[in-house]
Every structure is written in structure tokens, then in C-alpha cells.
Amino acid sequence: MELDDLRRQWQQPEPAATPALTPTQLDALRKGHTTGLVARMRRNARLEAGFNGLIGLGCLAVLPYAHDNLLRAYAGLTLVLVIILVVFYYRVLGVLGRMAEPTGSVRGHLGTLAQGLRQLLRFYYRLTLASGPATMLVVWGVMLGRMAARGQFKHWQMSVFIGVLVLLMAALTQWLVVKFARWYVQRLYGRHLDRLESQLRELNEPAM
Amino acid sequence: MSAAPSADFLAALHEYQPLVRRVCRLYCQDADDRQDLFQEIVLQLWRAWPRYVPQPDAKLSTWLYRIALNVAISNLRQRTRRPASVGLEDEAARYLAQSTENSAYEPEETAALYAAINRLSDVDKAFVLLYLEDRPYDEMADILGITQNNVRVKMHRVQEKLRKQLVHK
Questions:
Q1: Which contacts (CB < 8 Å, 24+ apart) does range B108-114 have?
Q2: Residue numbers in A near B104 (CB within 8 A)
Q3: A30 inside domain
């Protein structure tokens, strides 16, 4: 039996044909969560962007009332991080918006998805690279500032020791964070990207 | 997305629902997966519908096939993981037992062909689907985004793959 033979049967209506969807069923469908990964990523990105916005608002609220210089510096640095993240999520949502449009040809759509996923992987990786030192600057800066304010750096040997220790800890943390981020992002999206690229290769294969 | 589907969308969906069901049938063996895929395709069609502009040289079916295949192939969904090789023949036979009463072929032959199709890649399945749907090569090329010549060559290769699978069965 060949495809031509199957074609004769294929378009026959299913024996137990499902009735047409009613507007009520469609409405329920619309309210339900889509199972698509892109839609889920968009939902998550919106939630994370909203959460960051709230943190930013919190920092703005704290800034005018903070009498402690360290607290003010902490809130200011966090605000800068929030602004960077808002720009990041704006770009992520832009990429995801393009990926969510399935009306193009199959090859075009697969290309858009693969390109979008590659961009997202780059974004996340760069964000991790950039936010690691920035976060450490905030955390260690506040801690060291407090120690200095309490007069705990009276001896220069102690200051050097703490400085070197902080640098080593920062380098180790950054190395671990980058390793973890690479593994995590690859685990989350890498297999999708591999599959999309393989499908694209199947379609792109030159006709010989 | 508008709160209620427009009448023309409902009419189009009513007309083309069997097409969407056939796409789901080819890509999913499990009834739950099939229903998930069906819902996802309908949702994407509904979202895209306001941007659909009827053109004299483009069929609505081409637009529908594109969206249905894009959702089915790109498959960036969180599917329940089930062993792919379990029950393929059973599923095909079950379906065929209902629909091959007038067929000249034994249900086992048809089930074997279905099983062979199920072992193809998602991209190859798209060629099979469009072939079974009797789409002309120019429309297949338009849906898939490749040249007609490429469609011919790949269609030939897919048929060869199926023959080999059936021989080696």
C-alpha cells in the first residue's frame, strides 16, 4: 500500500466526527492557558517585568526618606539594576512577540523561532554576565561600607586581606553563576533550538 | 484578541475544522495530545484572524495549513512525555477499523503505512499531510516556504523512506 492509496481514504470524514465549536467553547478556550512554550515565556517575562517594576517603585519610595547614605546608595544601585532589567524585558518581549506569530510559511516560521531562541539565549547569558558583578557590587559594597562605618578597617593589612577575600569570593561566585546560567538556559531552551535547527536543515537541504 | 469570535471566523472554522482535525490526527497519536494540539491551533487561528486579508491569488486553506503546520511542527509545547513507539500500530488499527470498511486494503496494511508515517520526522510528515490532502505542488511550496522543485524532490524522498520502512517491516 502506498500514499496514493491512503489518499483516497484520508479525506473521508471521521466516523465519530466532532461537532463544530460553539462560541461558548471558544470563549472557554480563550480563557484557558495556552500550552505553547512561547506563550508561557511571554507570560513569565511579563510577570517578571511587573515584579521588577514593583521593586523599582519600592526603591523610588525609599530614596527620599532614606537618611542612611548606605541605604540610599543601595536603593539607587537597585534602581539602576531595575532599569537595566526593564530594558532587558522590553527586548525579550519584542523577540517573543515576533516568535508568537505563526502565519508565515513553515520554513520562515521555523527560522524566526530559531533566531528568536538564539537571541534569547544570548540575552540571558549577557544579563547573567552583567548582573553578576553589579549584584556583587551592591551586596559586598553595602557590607564593606557598613564595616568601614563601624571602624573595622583600622589596620591596612586587614583592609588588604578583606579586599583580596572579597575579590576571590566575587570571582568564584561569578564563575559558578555563569556556569549554572549556561547549563540552565541550555537545558531550558537548548533542546528546542537543536530541534528547530535540525528541522530547518531538513527544509533547507538543497534539492539534488 | 477580541472577546467574542466574529461570525466569519466561526463560519471559516466550521468549514475547515476537519482539516485541523486531520493535521492533529497525523501529528499526535494520543487523544489528549490531539485535543491539546487542536485547541492550540484554533487559538492561534483566532488570534491571527483579525490580520487575515483575503487575496484573490491566495486561498484561505493555504493560510490555515500554514498556521496549523507551524503550530504542529514547531511543537514548542509542554507535551506529556509518552513513549513514541508504544501503540502506534494499535492506534492506527483502531482508527482504521472504523473507517476502512469499503477499503480494498487489509487494515493491517493501512496500519503499517500509518505506523511508517508516524516514524517520519515532523517536517516529512508535513509533506505527507499536504500530499494526502491533495494540495498542488505550488500550494505546498507556498505553505512550506520552499521551491516547487524542492517539494517534488523531497516528496519523492519521503515516499522512498516509506517504501523502505514497509519493506523492512
A1: B109/A1, B110/A1, B110/A6, B110/A9, B112/A1, B112/B166, B112/B169, B113/A1, B113/A2, B113/A3, B113/A6, B113/B162, B113/B166, B114/B88, B114/B89
A2: 5
A3: no
